[in-house]
Write a structure and sequence with these properties.
Layout (H helix, E strand, L loop, with lengths): L8 H8 L4 H8 L3 H9 L9 H8 L4 H4 L4 H15 L2 E9 L6 E9 L1 H34 L8 H23 L4 H18 L8 H34 L1
């Protein structure tokens, strides 16, 4: 597997802002070679230059020195977008719904493209955050079930794999279609509502969601009772032995 090259923030920021290393060096009063050394990670950026870089790009100092993640990149893009977006206030006249009189209000104009790009960056961040949470949940399940007794942790692997299979089934359902998204959403709401009730909270539900919640409750109770019977049978067998 090919290793992913890590980059420090300064390299990414220069590329994003289309800023040449030579120009950065000139504005900082250092040589081009010094900037190259920073980019390669051979030496850290001198602290005295961080405020200058922050002012140069209008970005927080924290991003320039460290090895940045995909989330960092999106955060930098978002800050850049906010710094450069077209925004201004203007006065508008509307009719007061209570008095019927015309009143003047101040509105803020933002370019539609800027609003879309801002929303799209948040969308990309949500994908990364969700992916990270899924990975953490699966790994946490493995760690929770891991029994450090010297044997191979097959049970832990099985539990983690079961969670992975749930996500795989969900992706297949969404990918192949055939079920309206609102129905899928209602099914999940039914499961969430069962958890809320179980934890002493309630939530408004539509008729279909209530049915899902009720079915889950009935099946949970059935499986709990079934498990109790298995335990009772095992205890009786032990007594006979």
């Amino acid at each position: 597997m090919k290793a992913v090259r890590t980059i420090i923030g300064l390299e990414y920021i220069c590329g994003l802002y289309n800023k040449k290393y030579t120009n950065v060096a000139e504005e900082l009063g250092v040589s081009r070679q010094v900037v190259s050394v920073w980019i390669k990670g051979t030496k850290p950026i001198a602290k005295k230059h961080l405020p200058k870089l922050s002012k140069m790009f209008n970005l927080p100092e924290e991003y320039f020195q460290r090895q940045i993640t995909e989330l960092d990149k999106l955060d930098i893009q978002k800050i850049k977008l906010h710094n450069e977006k077209t925004e201004f206030e203007y006065e508008d006249t509307i009719t007061d719904p209570d008095t019927g009189e015309e009143i003047t209000i101040t509105r803020t104009y933002i370019e539609e493209a800027d609003m879309f790009n801002d929303a799209y960056i948040d969308y990309e961040k949500n994908i990364i955050n969700l992916t990270n949470r899924i990975k953490e949940l699966i790994h946490d399940r493995f760690n929770d079930e891991y029994d450090d007794t010297g044997g191979l942790p097959y049970n832990a692997l099985s539990e983690a794999s079961n969670i992975l299979n749930l996500y795989e089934k969900l992706t297949k359902i969404i990918k192949h279609g055939g079920i309206f998204n609102n129905i899928i959403n209602d099914v999940f709401d039914g499961m969430l509502n069962y958890q809320h009730d179980f934890m002493g909270r309630s939530k408004n539900q539509n008729r279909f969601t209530k049915k899902v919640t009720k079915l889950i409750e009935q099946e949970q109770d059935r499986q709990i009772e079934e498990a109790k019977l298995w335990v009772t049978d095992d205890d009786e067998t032990d007594d006979l032995l």
